[in-house]
Specification:
This protein has 286 residues and is of the alpha/beta class. Helices cover 41% and strands 14% of the residues. It is built from ten helices and nine strands.
């Protein structure tokens, strides 16, 4: 790339807006045909300021999309068994169509046990082992929202994945691992990297598509981006900083997501879309 090259920005905000508009119309159709408003239950343990803000924002987005939200706030002293009971009760409640457990849930709780208490048909955040299995095997189910949003962005910008080398930096069960499975399903050749990867920079330099999802600010530097690569920054760190050094990476990449305004809006849009889809299925609509 020339010294004056600047990558095209992948506008997650605009695409998310269109998805939410379609979702709002679908929610209205469900309400009109069945008399039932799609409902998302949000569960928050403790009062972590960031988590409180995220939940409030998601509930506000629900309201704008015509989705009812039911919030359950639990004290920080909540045990794993108490949280599992709460999630199981919501799973059996026919008036609730989707369940979101805000994570992280705190050091005293077995997060995986809590996730597994969510019924697969209501796992609109795509956090259960059932959802991961469905993603991996290409079966019907709900995708983890951030990976699902990333794939929608790649499709929106016409990124060819078949035969391309995709490097995923991060291996979390709700971001790194499932996005790799989704890329593999589109015939990309996928390499997973993580905190113990030897010579990460050398592997990133070979990538046609880079997905940074490790939660370390500016871990990926521009000089390590292959000229013409597509860079997806799924990291969000204090100060609106991603996992990619945006200013240097955009001089070499062909496409790049900004932080904020790239992956973040897509995550919420997919959550709302999957909540409405869950309601439609549970109500017997096609």
């Amino acid at each position: 790339m020339s010294p004056t090259h600047t990558a095209q920005l992948m506008d997650g905000t605009g695409l998310a807006r269109r998805i939410v508009e379609e979702t709002t119309a679908k929610a209205a159709e469900i309400a009109q045909r069945t008399g039932v408003t799609p409902c998302l239950a949000t569960v928050l343990v403790g009062d972590d300021p960031a988590s409180v803000t995220y939940v409030r924002m998601k509930r506000a987005r629900c309201a704008k999309a015509g989705i009812q939200s039911r919030h359950i706030g639990l004290p920080a002293t909540t045990t794993t068994a108490e949280l599992v009971d709460t999630l199981a009760a919501l799973s059996h409640d026919p008036q609730v169509h989707g369940i979101l457990l805000q994570h992280p849930v705190g050091p005293g709780i077995d997060e995986r046990a809590a996730f597994e208490a969510i019924a697969p048909e209501k796992d609109v955040d795509g956090v259960t082992m059932h959802s991961f299995g469905a993603t991996s095997f290409g079966l019907p189910g709900f995708e983890s929202c951030t990976p699902g949003g990333i794939m929608r962005l790649l499709d929106e910008y016409g990124v060819e994945l078949a035969g391309k080398h995709a490097v995923v930096v991060g291996r979390s069960p709700i971001l790194g691992k499932p996005v790799g499975m989704l890329l593999l399903a589109q015939d990309a050749t996928v390499t997973y990297c993580h905190s113990r990867t030897t010579d990460l920079q050398a592997i990133v330099r070979e990538a046609d598509i880079v997905v940074a999802a490790v939660g370390r600010p500016r871990l990926i530097h521009g000089q390590d981006v292959k000229p013409g690569a597509v860079v997806i920054d799924a990291g969000y760190n204090p100060g609106n900083v991603g996992d990619v050094d945006f200013d240097t990476a955009r001089t070499r990449a062909r496409l790049i997501t900004p932080v904020p305004g790239g992956v973040g809006p897509m995550t919420i849009a997919v959550l709302l879309e999957q909540t409405v889809a869950a309601a439609a299925r549970q109500l017997g609509m096609r």
